[in-house]
Amino acid sequence: KPKPEQVKWTRNGRFISSHPTHTIHRVSLQDAGRYTCSADNGLDKIGEQEITLNVLYPPIVQIETKAKTAEEKETVHIKCNVTANPPPVTIEWLKEGDIDFRRNGDTLVLRDVRAEDAGTYICRGINMMKPYGGKTLEREGNASVALLVRHRPGQAVITPEKPVVHVGNSVSLMCKADPPGYPDPQYRWYRDVGGEVSTTVIAQGAQYLIPKAALSSEGKYHCHASNELGNGGMASATLEIHQPPQFLAKLQSNMIKRAGEADFFVTCSAKGKPEPSITWLKDDVEITPELHRYEVKTNVDKGPNGMVTVQSMLKFTGKARPNGNDLISTDRGQYTCLYENEVNKANSTMHLKIEHEPIVLHQYNKVANDIKETAEVLCKVQSYPKPEFLWHFGTTLLSTGGHYEIITNSDGNDVYTSILKISNVRHQDYGEYHCRVSNSLNHIQVPIRLQPKGPPEKPNKLKAVELGSNYVVLSWNPGFDGGLANTKYFVSYRKIVIPNESLMTEECAAVAASGAEWMEYDCQREVPCTISPLDHHQSYVFKVKALNTKGVSEHSNEISATTKVEKIPIPLMANFDPETKILGLNIGATCLSMVAIVESVMYGDTPMAAWHIIEKVDLQVNGHDPTYREHEIKHFVANRRNNGRSLGNTLDEIPIPIEDELNPRVRVKLCLKINHEYCGEYLEADIGQSLIQEASFVELPTLIAILVCSVVAALSAVLLVMFCRCRRNQKKESVKSKEYDIDSIHPSIVAQQNQAPPPYYSASSLENKALEHSMDLAMDQNTALYASQQPTYGYHQQNAMIPQVPQNDWSNMGYVENSYSNSNNGGSVNSQDSIWQLKMSAAASNSANMIPQHNYMDQQMQQNYGYDPMTHGGYGAVDDYAPYPHLMTTASQHGGDDYHHNMRNSQNPSRQDYCSDPYASVHKPKKRMDQHMDFVAESPYHDVSGLPDPYMEQEEAKSPVQNQHLSMSYDDALAMESGYSTPNSRNRRVIHEIVV
What we know:
By secondary structure, this protein is α+β, with helices and mostly antiparallel strands. Among the domains are: 6-53, Immunoglobulin-like (Sandwich), CATH 2.60.40; 58-150, Immunoglobulin-like; 158-241, Sandwich (Immunoglobulin-like), CATH 2.60.40; 250-355, Sandwich (Immunoglobulin-like); 361-448, Immunoglobulins (Immunoglobulin-like, Sandwich), CATH 2.60.40; 460-562, Immunoglobulins (Immunoglobulin-like), CATH 2.60.40; 571-635 and 664-687, Immunoglobulin-like (Sandwich), CATH 2.60.40. It is a single-pass type I membrane protein.
């Protein structure tokens, strides 16, 4: 203070600026140095401050020379000067074109240099710069120097190596030496003369140019390079001159002949190098000997310089011609002789016209039109010279005007068409018209009929033009379409047995003949038509018919065709036993006639092993099941390698020592019997004792099913034994516990322990939840649970005779299978099961009372059809099941006496009465109604207390005891009849059956 009057900037002591801020816009090396800022405010004391500016720059590389020359075997030193701020971290030498060359240091030293060391060397320097407040940067600089090593040229090379040029074209040959030589060499060209290299130089320079090659230019050329230090190796190349086919004699461009002329031929001749091939064409289609209408004769003449002359003659001769050599009208057309070699093609063309009388070309001599339509009667012919047309209808000559119009045109290819148009067709217009065509050679008269539209005519000449594995392409000649353009075609086909199939088994024949009914395929209007999908390797019969709105034609001729094989299978298994020489094959189900080709690894006459055929095995296959075949390889000799032993009487008489007598290799493939070239894939056989047996044919699902059934049978047997033992023990306990109660209530009933209970048949196949549906049915008045309309439960039909059982033959019942004991149900001894057993035993012992009970039952049924478990439930030793009221009503209305008679004479039938086989499954009817009601009342899944019960309403007329029996256990019913009070819930339970 006060403010400075002057500010001064200096760099290295030199004044540079008086501005308070000094800005350097583009920093250079000259800007580096010590900067001083000084200020003076007049108080005789100058303030100043210094700062040093350090300028960073990438390496600057300099080499003392741009090129350096050295002699061979000399040591070369080349110095490289590198300056940089900061100093370089790397200085290295590289060589152009040699990525592997790398030397470190600023001096390159090459000792004992050779010609290969010549080239351009690069010195490169690298430093790492970090400006103030910036990132570290890598920078490099480089310079190059050319090292020239004085040496003579090396071996010369001519490119292209095999020069080929066409006559008249230019060709350039290049010569280059490696190493090239220094000082730069001179190139000289020479040529063979008389088979030796001439000393005459024909050209100098690295390139030899022939501006227009000729046949005389062909030969061997040489070149080499030389300089003041010597000559390099000489190179050679043979120049080949090719000439495209060049005609010596062409075909006449136009020619006219008459039909019937004999021994006509045409010729053409051309030369070329290499030898040209000759091909004759008619209308751009190659003429082949299969036509039997032409004969080609060709002569070849080889001339100098490899030139070849080819002369060819086309003779109109063949067995397909009249008299073997006469011209016919179809000979007309364009003929071409085509020459071709590696260089090019050349051809000559002739238009041949044959004079002949008119020939009809239209397909049908019929035209169909309906009344009031316009008919077009068409007459189409081929004729040379041009023909004239006249139309007649009967004896009347027709001309254009009024009802008729005649139009004649030509396609320019000697085909002429005359159309007679008849407008507003009338009945009298139907008939036969005549088209008279004439030229200078002859005339013809063609009848053409005009008729009403109608059904199509049948197709003809049906044939198969292509076969596939799942399709057949059919072609035919359509018949006259009846005048309707919307005619469609339907192909009918059916399967047949493959003709001439020698190995066709009955099973395969049945498979092939299956589906032999005719099937139909709609081809629409397509001709040819592809029929698919079809089975592979299957024979079919085909026929075709036409259809339009007027009707259907007859079928065409029938043809048969066999589809191709889609794929040859491979054997399922193969096994070869070296000891027995038995080859076992397992072939899958197939109807193909096949052979098995067996091969083994053998050495033969060479030390290299290879697969050779040793056997061909005919196969008898099965169309439904796999086929197992064992075959002895009689001529299989397991020799050690190279022992030279032969097969003996083998097919090919070749030695077959296998690779190793202890470890042979055998493989098998299946081939069609009719074509051994069409085969499937190979399967290498397992070596050792045969593991393939007939049992192996059982398929995996079948094996699993057998195993599961065996396990289930074993488990069932174990459960059956346990069930019987448990039941026997529970039966004894049940009888003892119930004996007192039953005797006290009904003293007249005496239990017999040796009697079986009534059979218990589950109404459910899985568990007792099915009883829920039984309850639903019971509550429906329209459903007769035990009537004959329920065949599932196996009840008797209304008029069927009920089998009878002797009074004391209850021991023959299916006691174990149908047991209803406590052991089976797992319940207490006071359950209803025991009561069933005791009541049944008592019934059996009191057989003397059976008839009166029957009479009482008949009266009850006739009066109110009541359902009394004491009487109808088996406790009174009567029928095991009481009929449902609906059934009883029906029975009384339809032959009630017979029915009652059967009921009186019927006792509970045993299982043997139904089935003579004691082990057969029992046809199981429904459970008893009282059990159903008991179950539902106690089941937690049904609460029917609040629902109306029509069945109960119907049973109100019954006795209280009988009605109560429908909703309470048997213990409760007995208690009520005897005056005892027994809780309704005592000993109640839900029975669950588990079916394993």
